From TrEMBL:
Organism: Streptomyces doudnae
Residues that bind L-aspartate: E175, R221, H446, R487
Enzyme class: ligase
Name assigned to this protein: Aspartate--tRNA ligase
Keyword check for ATP-binding: yes
Annotated GO MF terms: aspartate-tRNA ligase activity; ATP binding
Aminoacyl-transfer RNA synthetases class-II family profile domain span: 144-566
Length: 587
């Protein structure tokens, strides 16, 4: 018999009754019922119930072993009997009567409970992540992640893509976030940058003649944490294709996402095909470029209706309205709570009216609306008795953010929100540039390596803020899974695009010498995308925080509490790297 096990803890069934077995695992739980010890033994594969009877060496040994210690046991499989079957466990028809016990690894007192969620704070969980990962939910999430990545590799290969690796040590790149930099010992005063994405390298692979590339790529960005963004590092499915237009990229990725979310999403419905929504339409209708389409409600722009209005709260401002049907039975509390929610999102308040049975409007601002206002509202919002209308007014971006959040919250409260579905969409036609509100400077709004719609002619003859890029995002349930673009592969277009964003020709030639040199030797039109693996798993696992799907994440302050990173370097090591450290002075 094997030194540690003949079977796993998830393997034994009623057909094994009478078999002598050897199991190894963690002591998950222990119960003393009438002097008989019942032990749940856990390993990677499942749980098997053990039985130890009083007066036996096994009883004496297991009675003293602390929870989460590792043990090896020898015993015989017995039937639990029909009345004692545990239908929650695959091994629930049997138990193992223990004859011999060997303690393999004793556990110290635990910092928190493993066999139940006990509300321990995240910092403690991350400090003892190796224990946290023993929990059923966390173990399930990590194995889901493993299965999803395996499926992605299989499906991408079946779609004709080739997996290739790109460098980790490279040069800095303007991807929109801070780089993590690595000092060079052999090149004093110079630094590598960890890749924010394999952007330039995957483009260079297309220029090198490889037609369809993919990689489960590690990416590094020195940015703040959010619920859907892990600080430090993350993984993405990096994809690039040659001789393609936008729809050519959409087709395989849409197929991949549909299959992944159907296979791993349980019984949740997956939308297909994915709607294509222009960026500006998304901002107007949903208040966001990552709309949650599970909410059935849409915003309507009424700025022109109130232009020149005597109602000061709306006059001269951007006005967005949200019509919510079937709220006639809702109490005043419904409106007040939605107003409180809007305030929590940054609003000063939330104006609203209700539609009475006779079609008239009632509510706090009804008296400020003219007959012409009411007629136009009724027409544009298709108002009927029982409807309510909520209004937001202010600057475009501010109103979009607030009313976009109100749209989803109102849908949830009013029964206009779909559960147990994955609602995907493509957001397309992003602006190529944006203006910095503080400096007035023009900068890239998305990926700087994207092809502008209209090419060089658009760059030379259009207002930069009117130029659209061949850029796109894929969104699911209000979460941005990916950004992508058809790439700018022509040197003169690239130089002009960067010139508009404030980069002179010499700077671009210096910073992107490899790319520009490659473009001048016959570059194919190409494009790609990079869905985030962590976010895909977060949605499939129905977890609100991305760190719940990563084995060893950093905390919100970009620290590894388990390993103690980041660490200080000894003076000798600093000298070797030609570095000196300047620590911030206390204020």
């Amino acid at each position: 018999m094997h030194r540690y096990r003949s079977h796993t803890c998830g393997e034994l069934r009623s057909s094994d009754v009478g078999t002598d077995v050897r199991l190894s695992g963690w002591l998950h739980n222990r119960r003393d019922l009438g002097g008989i010890l019942f032990i749940d033994l856990r390993d990677h594969y499942g749980i098997t119930q053990l039985v130890a009877r009083p007066g036996t060496p096994a009883y004496e040994a297991l009675d003293k072993v602390t929870k989460e210690s590792t043990v090896r046991i020898d015993g015989q499989v017995v039937s639990r009997g029909a009345d004692n079957v545990n239908p929650e466990l695959p091994t629930g028809e049997i138990e193992v009567e223990v004859g011999e016990v060997e303690l393999l690894g004793a556990a110290q007192p635990l910092p928190f409970t493993i066999n139940a969620e006990d509300g321990v704070n995240e910092e403690r969980r991350l400090e003892y992540r190796f224990l946290d990962l023993r929990r059923e939910r966390m173990h399930r999430n990590i194995m889901l992640r493993t299965a999803v990545i395996s499926a992605i590799r299989h499906k991408m290969t079946a779609l004709g893509f080739n997996e290739m690796a790109t460098p980790i040590l490279s040069a800095t790149s303007p991807e929109g976030a801070r780089d993590f930099v690595v000092p060079s010992r052999l090149n004093p005063g110079r630094f590598y940058a960890l890749p924010q994405a394999p952007q330039q390298f995957k483009q260079l692979l297309m220029i090198s003649g490889f037609d369809r590339y993919f990689q489960i790529a590690p990416c590094f960005r020195d940015e703040d944490a959010r619920a859907d963004r892990s600080p430090g590092e993350f993984y993405q499915l990096d994809v690039e294709m040659s001789f393609v237009e936008q729809e050519d990229v959409f087709q395989p990725i849409e197929r991949l996402m549909t299959e992944l979310f159907t296979e791993f999403g349980g019984d949740r419905e997956v939308t297909s095909p994915f709607p294509r929504i222009p960026f500006r339409e998304a901002m107007l209708k949903y208040g966001s470029d990552k709309p949650d389409l599970r909410a059935k409600l849409e915003l309507v722009d009424l700025t022109d209706v109130f232009e020149g209005s005597e109602f000061k709260a709306f006059a001269g401002k951007h006005v967005r309205a949200l019509a919510v049907p079937d709220v006639s039975g809702q109490p005043r509390k419904f409106f007040d709570q939605l107003g409180d929610y809007a305030v929590s999102q940054g609003a000063k308040g939330l104006a609203w009216v209700r539609v009475a049975e006779d079609g008239s409007l009632t509510g706090p601002i009804a008296k400020f609306l003219t007959e012409a206002n009411v007629a136009e509202l009724t027409k544009r919002l298709s108002l009927a008795a029982g409807h309510a209308v909520f209004f937001g007014a202010g600057e475009f971006d501010e109103v979009s953010k607030i009313m976009g959040a109100v749209r989803v919250e109102a849908a949830k409260r009013a029964g206009q929100f779909e559960e147990n579905v994955f609602r995907f969409c493509w957001i397309v036609d992003f602006p190529m540039y944006e203006k910095d509100e503080e400096t007035g400077a023009i900068d890239f709004s998305h990926n700087p390596f994207s092809m502008p719609q209209g090419g060089l002619d658009a760059l030379e003859n259009q207002d930069p803020l009117d130029i659209l890029g061949w850029q796109y995002d894929i969104v699911c349930n209000g979460v941005e899974l990916s950004s992508g673009a058809i790439r700018n592969h022509e040197p003169e277009i690239m130089l002009k695009a960067f010139e508009i964003a404030g980069y002179d020709r010499e700077t671009v030639e210096e910073k992107f010498a490899g790319m520009l040199r490659a473009f001048r030797f016959g570059a194919p039109p190409h494009g790609g995308i990079a869905p985030g693996v962590d976010r895909i798993v977060m949605l499939l696992a129905d977890e609100p925080n991305i760190r719940e799907t990563i084995s060893f994440p950093l905390n919100g302050n970009a620290q590894d509490l388990m390993m103690g990173a980041p660490t200080e370097l000894e003076e000798a090591r600093l000298r070797e790297l030609h570095l000196s450290v300047r620590t911030p002075q206390p204020k």
